[in-house]
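Training component of the fellowship. As part of building independent skills, the fellow (R.M.) carried out the full modelling exercise for a liganded target. The chosen ligand was 726. The inputs are recorded below so that the supervisory panel can assess the work.
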Amino acid sequence: MKFTLGKKDTQTKARTGTLITDHGDIQTPIFMPVGTAATVKAVHQRELKDDIKAQIILGNTYHLYLRPGLDILEKAGGLHKFNGWDRPILTDSGGYQVFSLAGTRKIKEEGVMFKSHIDGSKHEFTPENVMDIQRTIGADIIMAFDECTPYPCEYGYARNSMELTHRWLKRCINRFDTTEGKYGYSQTLFPIVQGSVYKDLRKQSAEFIASCDREGNAIGGLSVGEPAEMMYEMTELVTDILPSDKPRYLMGVGTPANILECIALGVDMFDCVMPTRNARNGMLFTSEGIINIRNEKWKDDFNPIDPAIGNYASTFYSKAYLRHLTISKEILAAQIASIHNLAFYLWLVGQAREHILAGDFGVWKDHMVKKVSTRL
Ligand SMILES: CNc1nc2c(CC[C@H]3O[C@H](OC)[C@H](OC)[C@@H](OC)[C@@H]3OC)c3nc(N)[nH]c(=O)c3cc2[nH]1
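Fellow's submitted model of the complex:
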C-alpha cells in the first residue's frame, strides 16, 4: 500500500491524500462505511459503489471469525470474493469487539479468552492468531491487536494497558511480517495508539507507534464516551507526533461535526456506526442539519430528503414518504435511510477534500460544523 500526500491546508492541519491499494485507490479524507458481518446493513454492494460512492468498507474480525467462519471465507477466496465487494476493505482486530460484545475482561499477557455471543463457545484471541485470522479474511488493511481502554479509567490502568498493547503490537508485527497474504494481493498492518486521555501516555504511545514505521497509523481509545473537547485534544497531540507522510485513521469517529473538526487536526480516515445505526432509528444527517423523520412535522413535507448531496435515494424519495415507511416499520425505510446517511457522510468528506484543494477549508468547516449539528 502507498500513500501520497496531496494538498496541505494553510489555516488548519487538514490535508488531502491518496491511498493506493491492490483493490483500488482511496481519496482522503475518507469515511469508511461499517460492514460488520460482511454486509453494510440494508445496503447492496451496487448501491455502496454507485449511489453512496463508498471507496473502502469495514469488516469485523470478531464477527466474521465466529460467522460464517474462516473455513467458508477461505473456500470463497477471501472476504472480497465472499461478499462481492471488489474495492478496499479494512478489518478491525477483534479486541474492541471482544471487550464490548463478549463482555470479557479476562485479559492475559498471552491474549484474551472469550465466549461467543452467538453460542457461548469458548475462544481465544492472541496477537498472533488475529494476524492469521485477518490474513484469511483478506482485508487490504488490518489492525493490530490492542486493548481499547474504557473511559474513564485510572492512570495506572491506562499505563499498564498501553504497555500491554505495545508488547502485543511487537508480536503482531513479528507474525505479520513473517507470513504472506493468501489470495495474491498485498495487505498492510496499522498499529493503534492508546494512552486513554493522559497526555504523557498519549505522547509515549504515539512516539512508539511512529517508531514502528508502518504504512499507516490508527488512533484508538477515543470516542468511548469522553467529552468531544478531550477527543480533539488527544487527537491533536497524537497527529502532531505521527508521521505526516502516512495516513492517520481515527477509530470509531464520529458525528459529522467530530469528523470535520478532526480533519482539521490532520486525520485522514474515519469509521462510525452512527450513519447506519441511526438510520434504522429514523435519525437522518442532512446538509441542512439533523432530522428525526418520525417527527410529525415531516408528515406532509413532500420535498426530497436532501437533493444537495446528489444521490438517488436522497433525491427520489420525499421526507413524507420516508416518515410513513419509518413509522410503519417498513423494510424499505432502513434501506433508504441507510443509503441516504452513508451518502451524506461520503458527500461531507468529499466536500472537505474539495475545500482543502480550494484553500478555504477553515472557513467552510466552521460554517458546516454549525449547520450539520442543527436540529431541524
Ligand atoms: C465507537 N468508538 C470507537 N470504536 C472503536 C474501535 C472499534 C472500531 C469498530 O467499531 C465497531 O465494532 C465495535 C464496528 O463494527 C460495528 C467496526 O467496523 C467493522 C469498527 O472496526 C474498525 C476500536 N478498535 C480498536 N481495535 N481499538 C480501539 O482503540 C478502538 C477505539 C474505538 N472507539
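The panel noted the following from the submitted structure. Residues 34, 36, 58-60, 92-93, 95-97, 100, 143, 146, 148, 192, 220-224, 251-252, 271, 273 surround 726 (CB under 6 Å). The mean pLDDT is 97.
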